[in-house]
Amino acid sequence: MKVTVFSGSHKGREGNTLIMVEEFLKGAEEAGAETENIVLTEKNIKYCRGKFECWLKTPGRCTIHDDMDDLLPKFMASDIVVFACPVYFDNIPSVMKNFVERLAPVLLPQFEEDEKGEYRHAKRYEKYPKLVVISNAGLPGQTNFEVESLFFRRLARTFHTELIAEIYRGEGEIFRGQKNIMLKPLIGKYKKLLRSAGKEVVENQEISDKVVEDLEKPIVPPSLYIKFGNEEWDRLIKECQKEEK
């Protein structure tokens, strides 16, 4: 089984989402999957021009030649695709959205009605990869992911496939405290859950209710996270003000 992650954080390999991805992939590899993590900020991906040339002029192929020439086949060759990104202003980052829009060639231009009576583009291929989402937000709470979750659920429908797992982590900045003697065991416990999730996705194409429940529990109390988070922001602001003087 091939599991491909497309990581769409503006921070690239410095983002908190990558920490989650690395643990998830360890579990997937333990279950025997071949894995790859593609960091989108390291790729040359131009914006879609919206001319429909991939449907009309060169069916199934984009007329823009950049790194999508390699990435689109990787997407289609995967059994499971993981979209990994943080929440930016209540939605997915532009890095990820740009990549998603360039996947248009895998569909046909013609419309069809789905089983719910809604309309979408017809599929070009018989089989599409199943989807997983991994995301984190700086703020605590699962409600931060409502828009993102809806987006990826609709995207799975658009691509004639299933969204088989969603892993959302509020309190994302807590990963910055991995060396803290008090936080280290709490973060370690959460990482173990991520590895379990990766293993279950490969073996069962879903995450068990128990693991989902544990993944969504706060790592630290939200009130404590907010308190120390605001103190850290105040410290960083003062440091910047000193540098400017």
Sheet with the most strands: spatial strand order: 2-1-3-6-7
- The helicity comes to 40-55%
Q: From the helix content, strand content and strand pairing, which structural class follows?
A: alpha/beta
User: Which spans have pLDDT < 50 for at least 5 consecutive residues?
Assistant: none
How many structural units, i.e. domains? 1
Gyration radius, to the nearest Å?
Answer: 19 Å
Task: Name the overall outline.
Answer: globular
* Integer average pLDDT: 94
By CATH, the architecture is named 3-Layer(aba) Sandwich
Estimated share of beta-strand residues: 15-25%
What CATH calls the topology is Rossmann fold
CATH class: Alpha Beta
GO molecular function: oxidoreductase activity
Organism: Methanosarcina horonobensis HB-1 = JCM 15518
InterPro entries: Flavoprotein-like_sf, FMN_Rdtase-like_dom, ISF_SsuE-like
Protein name: Iron-sulfur flavoprotein
Give a summary of the structure in a few sentences.
Its cofactor is FMN; [4Fe-4S] cluster. This protein has 245 residues and is an alpha/beta fold.
